[in-house]
Specification:
The chain is mainly beta. It is built from no helices and 10 strands. It is globular and about 40 Å long.
Length: 111
């Protein structure tokens, strides 16, 4: 994570050079007060597991391209586009370009 002085942290996003052979690689960048920020690096063969999460999720596509299914609707994402998925929204990744990079922010409900 880098420096950790007085509670602050410093880190760096991946360069996208280490693309997984299949699926996605998830790297947790921050966990703080019910918020989890992660970087996702996708292969050309993503895991198409459907998700229905208990937390809200905001995701932005940094590089590459992706096709998702969100609540039965096909959604194409290009670099710079973001998507908000309220808790309980069924979604899954259908296709990605090799090396697609995402930033995801999970907002967990208060206990």
């Amino acid at each position: 994570m880098g420096d950790d002085e007085g509670g602050w942290r410093r880190g760096r996003l991946s360069t996208g050079d280490d693309v997984p052979a299949s699926g996605e690689r998830f790297v947790e960048l921050l966990r703080h007060r019910g918020v989890v920020v992660e970087e996702i690096l996708s292969s050309a063969a993503p895991d198409q597991t459907p998700y229905v999460q208990t937390q809200d999720e905001w995701v932005v596509l940094l590089t590459g391209g992706a096709t998702m299914e969100v609540a039965g609707t096909t959604v194409q994402l290009e670099p710079g586009e973001h998507l908000f998925l309220p808790a309980g929204t069924p979604h899954r990744v259908l296709a990605t370009l090799a090396g697609t990079r995402w930033l995801a922010v999970h907002i967990h409900p208060s206990p």
